[in-house]
Amino acid sequence: MKILVINCGSSSLKYQLFDMDNEEVLVKGLVERIGIDGSRLKQEKGEDEYIIEEDMKDHTEAVKHVFDAITDKENGVISDLSEIDAVGHRFVHGGEKITKSVVIDENVREAVKEYSKFAPLHNPANMMGLEACEKLLPNVKNVAVFDTAFHQSMPEENFLYGIDYKYYEDQAVRKYGFHGTSHDFITQKTAQVLEKDQKDLNMISCHLGNGSSICAIKEGKSFDTTMGLTPLEGLVMGTRSGDLDPTVVTFLMNEYGYDTKKMDNVLNKESGVLGVSGVSSDFRDLENAANDGNKRAEIALKMFANRAKRYIAGYMAEVGNVEAIVFTGGIGENSITMRESIMEGFEQFGIKIDPEKNNVRGGCHLVSTDDSKVKVFVIATNEELMIARDTKKLV
Question: What is the pTM of this model?
Fold first, then answer.
């Protein structure tokens, strides 16, 4: 069975084509700058690269280029689109109405549209990818896999906010959590590595990237997580503010005359380590700037590490008997120094990083000392494989 996985952002599209008989990635690629001058598709097949540079005005054109690339006689891997058995789509927000992966029907569409109010940058883009696939592959089933689904196991005391209960009843205002597909994969992989039944596993999953979230896993399920109603809550991120006093919002709106659209843009696109450092949202640039003596870049990195440290420690107390702390995502997998910074201070609780073991990127590695009371791992996430697995089950 061949399954295509599509992950649409507002101006980008990631894709992978799997042979699910052995879970082999046949080809993968990225389309960037959709709807912007300089659109570009880069496809990888083993060590071979195939690049298309051509303006793509929308996601329909982008998906068409993807289909052309995977069927290209020299650079593709299938001869005809009829070889694709199903398409799995990453969707960000399913609210309380969709609590697991589903074959897409009209009810799913309505839920996606309804919860676009909580994910205005993501759900509409996800929907554009779906519509493009439906147009170009009219007889193939499409499956939606939601970032929020894994976190539906959180208890009320963890997902409710300290505001009038009527806002939850009337408008479904609550914590939903995100990166669920990644946290789910990491939980399953950690259970496999520890040779444990997932339902017996307590752990902390740290998905750290430009967007970051930490998840407390209790008995193999999401018990608490840092992101909230939207992906803005929680850790300081690349361009997102993370947690702050809500009064900051009204104060800035009053002082600068910002409307809600401008304020939303400030918090989502002009804040985080970019806003603090004034340098970049890319942590590699921040580390280079900090090493060159840039004080604000150094502060931004310390803020990120301290916020992560605070959540990990708090979640350990919430969950109890934590067996593993796992780092994943672009930063979690690749920043040796950030992992060290986050775990600094945990020695007092008997949790220790081994500097030599920690000198790794990606893959699956134990990086804690032999006598550490909690095992610390680096495990590369694979959201696309999780989407493909769910798609296979459903179709």
Answer: 0.92
